[in-house]
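Supplementary Methods S3. Input chains for the assembly prediction are listed below.
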Amino acid sequence: MIGFGNVGQAFAKLLISRRGWLRETYGLEVEVLAISTRTRGSLLPNMAIDLSQVLGMLEKGGTFRDSLPGYVDLSPIEILEACDANVMVELTTLNIGSGQPAIDHIRKALSRGMHVVTANKGPLAYAYDELSSLARSRGLQFRFEGTVMDGTPVFNLVERTLPGCEVEGVRGLLNSTSNYVLTEMSRGKSMEDVLSDAVRLGFAEADPSLDVDGWDAAAKITVLANVLMGAGSTPNEVDRAGIRGIDPESVRKAAASGMKYKLVASAEKAEGDVRTCVRPELVGPEDLFWSVDGRSSAITLKTDLMGEISVVEHDPSIMQTAYAIYSDLLLIAESLKAF
Amino acid sequence: MIGFGNVGQAFAKLLISRRGWLRETYGLEVEVLAISTRTRGSLLPNMAIDLSQVLGMLEKGGTFRDSLPGYVDLSPIEILEACDANVMVELTTLNIGSGQPAIDHIRKALSRGMHVVTANKGPLAYAYDELSSLARSRGLQFRFEGTVMDGTPVFNLVERTLPGCEVEGVRGLLNSTSNYVLTEMSRGKSMEDVLSDAVRLGFAEADPSLDVDGWDAAAKITVLANVLMGAGSTPNEVDRAGIRGIDPESVRKAAASGMKYKLVASAEKAEGDVRTCVRPELVGPEDLFWSVDGRSSAITLKTDLMGEISVVEHDPSIMQTAYAIYSDLLLIAESLKAF
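Predicted C-alpha cells for the full assembly:
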C-alpha cells in the first residue's frame, strides 16, 4: 500500500472485518506486506503487517517509527523495489497538475509484475493510455473504480456488464463537495460557511479550489473520457468553470422557480474528438440530477446499443471509497483463480 | 432459440448487424442452429440458419413452412434433444401462473449441456434455486439479465461489479407500462385511452391485467428477491396491488401538490425472511423515482458495503431487450475463452 490516509485506513478496517469471510468464501488470504506513507515513514517487515496494531497506533497519534516492526526509511519506489507483493494499492493524494509521483509508482509496480489498484485520479487523467498498455503487455490488471463515484460501479460496469457497447457520451454530478455546497446554499447558507463545515467534517480539503473551481470534476471527466471514450486528454483540456461565481441571490432565484444549480461534468464525441466540459447548470425536477442532493453523485452514460442508463450513489461515506479498493482487489483475485 | 417473437427477432437483427464486429473483436462466430416457435413451426436445418432470410419471410407475413430450409414439426423439447448448440436462448412468453413450459425448456437445455440465456421471468420466479443449482452442478452458465429492466445491468451488476457485497433491500419501478400509464394520466388522459394506445404501439399486451394488476412487477420483484436475496419465493407471495384502482381525480390531486403516483416494487429482509411488495406510492420530486417517467424504469439496491446505489434505464425500446440477450451471450463467450 502506497499511501495510508483516510481511504487507506478505511480499507484496512474493511479488510480486517472481512478477513474471515474472504477466507471462507473466496479461499483468499489478504496480507499487507508493506505500507508507505509520506509523513509517518514506512513499514516493510519480512512478514504480514498487523493492520490492527498499525491502526491502533495511528489512533493514538503515534508514528510508525515508535514501536512497529519493520520500520524503514525508504521512498515508495524503494519500497516497491524491495517488496514482492502481488498487488500494489496506490492511494497517494491527487496532484492535479501532473499526476505525479503516482504515475511513477504505478509504472514501477507494473514493471515489477504487480497488479495495480488505485483510487488516485491523477495517473488516469495524465497517463491512462501508457499505463493501461503497460499493464496489458505484462498480462497484469490495472483497476481504478474508486477514481470516480467511490465504489459505485462505473468503469467495472462498462467493462464487465456492457460488453460490445460503445460509450458515446457521459454526463455526471461528480464532485460531491460542490454538490453539497450547492444543496446547503439553496437552504440559505453562505458558500464560506458550508465549506468550513465540510472541512471540519473531514470531507473537503482545507484548500477548496480543487472542488469549487471544478478541478476535481475536471480530473474525473478526463478519466471517464480517457477510459470509456479513448480521449487521450488531460484535465487542462476541459472547458472548466466551477461554482465559485454562484452567489446566494442566484441560488434563491433558481429555487423560487423550482430549479437548482448543479455542477455538471460532461464528455461527448464531436468531429472525431472528445469534448469535455465542467460547468454549473440549472436543472428542473424532471431532470434525474435534480433529486441528487448533498454528497450524492450521479452519472448518465449514453451508449450505442443500450441507449441511456444512469447510476446514482446515495450519501456515501469513506466506506464506499474503501469498498472501491476492496472490490477491485476481489476482481483481481477472481481473475487469478479463473486462469 | 426457443421463441421467436418481437424480442427474438430484434436479437436476430442485432446479431446480423454485429456479425463483423463479433468476428473481428471477439473472434466469435455466432450461428443459430435451430429456431422453435409456437405458431409458425420450427427450423432445424443441418447448418446455420440464414437469419436475414427468416426475418424477410416473417416481414412478408410468411410462415416457416413456406420455403425455409430445415422446416420441422417438432416441439421445443424435441428440438432441444435433436440440436447440439452450445447455448439455448429461451424467449417464450411469460406464464405468470407456473413459469411453464419455459422451466422444462431450461431443464432440458442444461441437462443436454447447453448454457442458457433467457429474458423470461417465469422460470426465475418459480424455479430459480433448482435451475441455478442444476447449471452450477454441470459447470454451465445460466444468465437472465433481460428479465428485469431489459439489458440494463442489474443481475450482472451485482454478480460482476459488486463482489463481496450483500443486497439487503430492493426498491424499483419495474413495470414500464404502468409507469407509462401513470405518466399519461397525469397529463389528463384516461387509463383506457392510454392502454389502448400502448397496445396499438406494441408495448402492452392486449390483456392489460399483467401490467395494471401488478403481476409483471410482482414477477420481477420475485426474481430479484430470489436471485439477489435468496428468497426462494414465488409471485403469489408478493403483497400485490396494481394501478387499476387509481382514478383520474386522485392523479390530478397529486399533481396539484407536486406529487406523482408510481408503482413501486420492493423487497426487504424481515425476521429472517424476505418480504416482497408491489403497490402504488405517492412520491415527491426529492425522490429519485419522481423524474423516472414514461417507459423508463429504475431500481435502488441497498447493500451492506456499498450503501445505496440506483440504476435508471431511460426510454427503452425493444433494442434494449435484444441487448440483454446479446450481452449475456457475450459474457458466456468471454468466460469460455478464459478457461
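The mean pLDDT of chain A is 95. The domain at 6-152+319-338 of chain A is CATH 3.40.50.720 (Rossmann fold).
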